[in-house]
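Posting for a labmate who doesn't have an account.
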Amino acid sequence: MGYWIGEFVKVLIGYIFLMYLWPTVIFRKKLAGKNLTYRFAFCSTVSILLINTIILGLGLFHILKGWIVLCIFYGIFLVSVLKERDLWKYFLLHVRTFFSGTQGWKTLILRLIQDMVSGFGEFLKRVNKKVKGRRLEYGILSVLLGFAVVYFSYGAFNCHSYGWGDMDVHHAWIYGLKEGQIFSAGVYPEAMHCFIYAMNIMFGIPIYSCLLFLGEIHVVTLLVAVYCLLREVMKSKYTAYFILTAFLTLDVVCIDEIYGISRLQYTIPQEFGLYTQFLCALYLIRFLKRDSESDRKFNDDLFLFMTALASSLAIHFYVTIMAFFLCASFAVFGLARVFRRKKFFALIIAVIVGVVISTMPMVLAFASGIPLQGSLNWGMNIINGTDTKEGRTQAVQSEDEKETSEEEMVEDTTEEQTDQSEQIKSLTDVKQNVQNIEVEKRNPIKEITEKVKSLVKLTYSCGYVQLYGVMRAGWLIKFTLLAVILTLINMTVKVVRFRKFPFEMYAGITFASVLFMILYAAPFLGLPEIIAGSRLCLTEQILLLSMMALSVDEIFFLLSKTKAEKLFPCLTLIGVAGIYAGTNYFGVYHGYLYYELTRYNSVVELTNEIIKKYPQYNYTIISTTEELYQVIEDGRHEELLDFHNKLKQDKYIIPTEYLFFYVEKNPIKYAQYHFFDGPRWLAQAKYIPNYKYSTAILSEGDDIKHSKIAEKYVDNSLEIMGKASDAYTNIKNRRILESELYYWCQDFKKRFPNEIKVYYEDEDFICYIVKQNPEHLYDLGI
C-alpha cells in the first residue's frame, strides 16, 4: 500500500504543477488582481490547451521528443520566474557569494531552504488574507472535496488494475506519443493523452500510475467547476454546499446511474473533460449578464467561455455536445441579450476561435494523411441506433416491434372469439364515426396537445421512472413544478420592479434538468440518441439536485434580508452534516462503486517488483494482455495467445535473459463488475441488487468469480476469437490457455529441473522464472 500512496502523491504533485502552478507563474501578470474563480477557470482551461497545442504541434513537425518537451515546459517556467527582478537579483547574489568563496555549498543550501520556508509562510499569509471571513465556507468545501477524492479513489487503492477496458487503449495512445507519434490510432481528441504524456516526461511518473490515479484527483476540478456555476446561478452562495453534499452522499437506483458515477473512478477522456461544460455555462451567463452599453466586445468572461469551449473539444466531443445543451438551457431565457448586435457577433467570434484553436491540430493531422479514429464512427452509431453496447435506439425499435406483434396477436384472437352479431354496425354509424375521426385529425391544436401529452408521459416513464423509480420520480416531478412556480413568481416580481423581462437563472436550471432527461429518453420518444443515455446520468444528477434545491435557495435569499444572515455559515455546516446523517439514517446513503476486474492484485504487485528488481528490457513476461501496459516502459511482454500458437512452430525462442510465466490457477472471469466493500462511513455495499437483470458477471469484496485449471483442458480447441485481448474475455478460452501454460511449465521442469523455478505463488496465481543464457536460448517449442 505504501508504494501506491507514493504513486498517488507523485501524480497529485504533477497534476497541481501542470494544471495550476505552471500557468499561474507564466501568466501571473494576466491573473494579477483576479478573483479565485477566474484563476481556477483560467488555469483549468488554458493549461490544457497549451499542453495539447505544443505536443501535437511538435508531433505534426515530427520533432516530438522527450528532451524537447522538457526544455519547452521547464524553460518557459524558469524564464518566467527569472523575469522577476527581485528574484533575479537574489539568484545572482547567491551565485556571486558562492563562487567568491564567502559561503560554502552547505550554507547556500541552508539559506535556500530558509528562504523557501519563509516564502511559503508569506504565501500562506496571502491565502489567509483572501479567505478571511470565509474560512468556514472554504473548510466545508475542502472537506467535501477530500471526501470525494477518498470515495472515488477507494477502488484504485483496493484493486491496482485499470478499472475500465478503455484505459488500456488510452495507455497505448499515450505510449504512441512517447514514441513520437501523435494520433497513433487515428485522429481523435488527445488533450487528456497529451496532459498525461507531459506528466510522464516532466516528472518521470509511469503512465500506468497516471491513468490509475489521475481521474480520481481530477474529480476535484469537476466539483469546483460545479460549485462555481452554482454560486453564479443561485441567489444564495450557501446553497451550492447542500447540492454538492447531496451529490456525494445520495445513492442512485438505476444501472445507468451506477455506470455514470463509476466512470469518475477511471481516467478516460469524457470524464476528464466534464468540468468544461459547467465552465462554459458559467462564463456564458456572466457574459450575457453584462450591461451591453458599458461592455467591451471581447472581455474576460467571453475569453474564458472560449477557452472552456476549446478545451471541451480538445478533450472529448461528447462534452462539447453536453456543453451546448447546458448553455442553451440558460441562453434560451436570455435570447434578447444573446442577439444584441455587439454581444452576438462577439459570441460568434469566440465560438469560431475556440473551435479553430482546439481542432486545428486534428484538421492538420487529417490533412497530412492520418485517418479518423474508429470511435468517431462509434459516436455516429450511437445516434443512428446501430451500437450494441451503449446505444439504445435499436433495442427500443426491436421492443416496439415485439409489442406491436403481440398486440396484433391479441387483436386477432379477440376477433375470432367475438360474436358476429356484435361486429355488425349500421352504415350511418360507421360514417358518423369516420367523420368524427376526420374532424379530430384536422384539429391541429388537439393533435399538438395529444402529442405533447404523449411525449410528457414517455419522458416520465422512460426517463424519470427508469432512472429513479416511481416514488423518487414522483418527488422529482413535484419539485420541478415547485421550481416552475418559484421561477414564475420571481420573474413576475422582477418584471413589475424593473419594467423589463429578466434573465432568470431558476428557469435555466429547471429547463436544463428537463432537457437532459429528454436527451436521456430520446430513443423512446422517437428522437435520435445524440449521446448515449448512461453518459448523461452524472450531469443530469447534478442538475436535478440543483433544481430540487431552488426552494432552499429561495428561503436563504429571503432570510438574507434579515439579521439571520449572520447564522448562515453555521446553518450551512449543520445542513451539510444533516444531509450526511440523514442519508445514512434513512437508508439512501450511496454505495461502493465497481471496477471492471481483469486480474488479481497479487499479479500487479509482482509485476511492480519485477520492474524494480530486473534490468530494463532484459526480461519478458508471458501472460494475458493486462501486463503489457504495466510493463511496456520497462520490459518485454509476450501474449499468452501468441505463446500458445508459437509453441507449434519448429523453433520458438524469446530473446531475453529472464522469462516470467504468469499462470492463473483460478482463471479470472474477465471484466466482471467487481463491487468493493469497506468502512461504513464511506459507503454501503448496496448496488449489486440493482444489477439483477444485467447479463454482467458480478462480484463483491473478496469474492472474485473465477474458474479452475485442470489437465483435461490441455489441447482443447479454442473458440474462434479476434484479437488476443478478446480471446481472454471468454472464460473457456482463458481456462484452456492457463491450463496449457501451467502444464507446459510442469513438462519443462521435468526436462530441465534446475532451470525453471517458482518465483511467486498464492492460492490464485503462480509465477515461474527461467534464466536463459543469452548465447544459448531455449527452444520453447520443444
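Reply:
Got it, the C-alpha cells are right above this. The chain has 32 helices and eight strands.
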